[in-house]
Structure formats: structure tokens, C-alpha cells
Amino acid sequence: MTALECVPNFSEGRDRARVERIADAARGVAGVVVLDVEANPDHNRSVLSLVGEPDPLVEAVLAMMRVATAEIDLTQHRGEHPRIGATDVVPFVPLEGSSMDDAIACANRLGERVAQELQIPVYFYGAAARRPERAELPRVREGEFEGLRDAIASDPTRAPDLGPPRLHPTAGAVAIGARPVLIAYNAYLTTSDVGIAKKIARAVRARDGGLAEVRALGFEIQERDRAQVSMNLTDYRRTPIHRALEFVRREATRYGVGIEESEIVGLVPEEALFEAAEYYLQLNAFQREQVLERRVRAAQRSGGAEESLGSFLDRLAARTPTPGGGSAAAAAGALGCALGEMVLAYSIDPKQPDPVLAAARETVHRGRSSFVQGIAEDARSYEGVRDRRRSLKASPDDPERQAALRSALRLAAEVPLATAERANALRRALRGVGPKTRAALASDLTTALALLTAASVGGLANVEVNLHDLAETGEPVEALRRRLDAARADDA
């Protein structure tokens, strides 16, 4: 499977409902999973992490951009973080099984559609840059929305790569690119003096002679009455997290301040955390195969790429909370897809392949991979709810723990909902090509459709339970309820 991550940044971090509407646009796309949503009020910016195969991932990001374009007005936007667009930056990141060329291809496809369908000027950056000077994102964002608005038509060096030679009146422009994994890492100082944070940022960032592959800015975080050194580690192998932190700590000492705490925004590779742990624990002879979870994963893979069906059924039958109904629904969907693929494989003439059947087979194959992922995702989401409930029980009035439970419950509803929506879409695809398949395989096709129906019914039942619990916390559930009702009507 060619899986990619995409980490779009939107110029909205204060209206949580608006951020969720943007995220919901991606959650409605089969084959894409929203991994994380981070919103920062002081930066007035949100960072979302998605994963999926190229085509559905482009569709999901475009759907999010449509919502952002309609709802975010940059002429009214104020925040600490520099920006040129309502959708400010969209990087595609290759994961295991994909390449930088795959990420560049996605960036190009998205850029063409944004320019044509949304009439927003597009600047390509990173590995997708079409001009060498635009490889670095800060160069693309120079002057921000207001400065670019004045320069785009008159300065040839600021002309977009695609799209109109003028900013969208409210949504501005967008930078679309391809890059390796980036770690967004912030250090909060024990002072509110933003001047100190800016001096430290200047010292640490690569362009001013600091650490390799580090971008940094100093911000005032009014909500916390603290100054922040905000860093992007564009290659954590060259400058790992602990090295950046210790550099900032040394610079802060010069000014008589310390580091109160640090944070990671969005997702982080486990390798980066291992490196930090090894450094601070002085584990000079540590082997990462000593990590329990890694050893377990290796053992599970030893008999094949995925867990065997028999092993999964044993775990499903055990008196344990996970895997449960949501995982079983995803497994039913995977079985339905596999059987549908077999029907299509026998129905396609190798000498004169029908393009409609070939396209359907590829769609069903991608669906099978997504269902297999959904088996583990459902179990993890339920375990997350259990963990957050235990944490909240220890401190029931803690607002951060309350928010963590709401987030876990939302994910526990979204995962089976994606299963049901995916099952409905794939069932329609198989029914649509049914008349073209071999009559001798009619019973196999019927079984495949029945399994996809089971996946939808089971997924929707799990959504209903988690949606009820989420509503009891006071969290808005209208968007999820609409998706549930639409999926239920689609299943009828």
C-alpha cells in the first residue's frame, strides 16, 4: 500500500467548531484517517494530520480547503504565526511503502485542482518546489498575506506557480509541498519577555548559523503569560529533539531564564523519542529491540505481514474488551473486499481487460487495506477511552482530562463511522459492476456484498454507542450525527 501523511495547516485556532468542520470534511472521505487535530489560540492556527493513499488523500485535503476557503477571512485574521492563506501550507510526507516522488505527485495534483476549482494561487515548496528559491517555506511566506497581496501582481519573483496572479480576496494563497517528516517542537520560557525568545530563536535556527535543519521563531503566548521558542525540526536525524532543547536551555541561561516545559505539536516518529530517551537516560548500550512493544510486533509479523485470521479470532473470542464489535465490523469489510477482488479478478479478461472492472478491482483492493488498518484502529480508540476514563476518575474536575476524554470518545465514534461509510461506498462500487461480472460467481458476489453490509451495520451500531457517551459530556455532536444519519440511510 502506498500510504502518505499530509499535515495541512489552517489559519484558525480559536473557533474549535470551525476547526472541527474542516476536519469533518476529511473524515467523510473513505480511505483517509484523521490522526490528529491540534489548535493553538495564540498562533490562531490549527495543524491536522491525515494518512491515506494518494487519490483519497488529495480528495480529503481539497474538501478541507473548500470549507476553510468558505469560512476563514484573512482580512479579519490575527495571530502570532506567519501565514499567507486560510489554508496556509499543505505538505505531503512519504511514509514506509511510499517515496518522495509519490509525495511530489500528490502535491502537483492537489495544486492543479486548487488553482482550477478554488481559484487560489499556489506556491510549490520543499521537494515539490518549481523554483530553487522556493524550496524553503519561509521564503514563500515572506511578507505574509498583506505583503504578498501587494507584491503578487507587480513583482515577478512573487508570481504563483499555478492559479491567478492575485490573492483570493479572503483565502489568500497556499503553499503546497513535499517534505520528510517534520517535528514541530516548542519550548516555553520562564519569562513573558518575547525579546528573549526572539534572541534564542535567532541563535538556534539554521539560517542564522545555529543548528542544522532547524527553523525557529520567538512568540508571546498571552494565554500563558509566557514567551515561546517555536521550532520546526525539518530533519530530526541531523538535529534531534534533545539537542535542540539543550541548545535553547543554554541560550536561555545567558538571559537568566529557564525552560518551564516543552511540547510537541502534532505527531512525532517513535525513533525521535527513543533518541531523546537514550540521551537523557544515558543508555549507551541500549538496543531498541529491548522495547516490549517492538518485540511483540516482531513476533506477530514472524508468521506473515499481518496477524493470522486464527489468532485474530482467538483474541476476538477472549473475555477481553478489545478487539470488539468495531474491529469485527472492519474484519467483515476486509473479507468482503477480498472476496469481491476475487470475483473481479476472474471476470477481467487478461487479453482485453475491461477498464471499468479494472478500476473497480483497484478501488476494492484499497478498501481492503483500509479495513485491515481499521481492525487495530478500533481497538486502540476504545482503549484510549478506557485510559482517559481512568485518568479522569482520579481527578474529575481537571479540564484537561475532561477534554482528553471528549477527544477519545470522538475518535471512538469516528473510527467505526469511517468503517460504515467505507463499506457503503464499496458495496455501491461492487453492485455497480455486478452485471459485468461472471454469472458463475454470483454467489461469491452476494457473499461479498453481505459481508460489506455487516461491516456497515456493525460500524453504525458502535457509532451510536460512542456518540451517546460523547453527547453526555456536553461536546457538540451534530456533525457526527448528520454523518451517522446519512450512512444509515445509505445502508438502508
Strand-residue fraction? 5-15%
Helix content percent band: 40-55%
What class would the helix/strand composition place it in? alpha+beta
**Biggest beta-sheet profile:** 7 strands, mixed
What is Rg? 24 Å
Q: Could you please say which CATH topology of the largest domain applies here?
A: Formiminotransferase-cyclodeaminase, Chain B, domain 1
Number of strands: 11
Average pLDDT, all residues:
90
* CATH-scheme architecture of the largest domain: 2-Layer Sandwich
Which superfamily, in CATH terms, is the homologous superfamily of the largest domain? Formiminotransferase, N-terminal subdomain
Overall domain count: 3
Number of helices: 15
- Element order, helices and strands? EEHEEHEHEHHEEHEEHEHHHHHHHH
CATH top level of the largest domain is Alpha Beta
How far apart are the termini? 31 Å
Gross geometry: globular
Unreliable stretches (pLDDT < 50, length at least 5) are none
Summarize it:
The protein has 492 residues and is α+β, with helices and mostly antiparallel strands. It has 15 helices and eleven strands. The strands form two sheets. Strands 1, 2, 3, 4, 5, 6 and 7 form a seven-stranded mixed beta sheet that branches. The chain has a four-stranded antiparallel beta sheet with strand order 9-10-8-11.
Walk me through the topology.
Blueprint: E1 4-6, E2 9-10, H1 16-27, E3 32-40, E4 45-52, H2 54-71, E5 87-94, H3 100-118, E6 122-126, H4 137-140, H5 144-151, E7 174-178, E8 183-189, H6 194-204, E9 214-221, E10 226-233, H7 241-254, E11 259-265, H8 270-281, H9 292-301, H10 309-317, H11 325-347, H12 355-394, H13 399-433, H14 442-472, H15 478-491
Parallel strand pairs: 5-7, 6-7
Antiparallel strand pairs: 1-4, 1-5, 2-4, 2-5, 3-4, 8-10, 8-11, 9-10
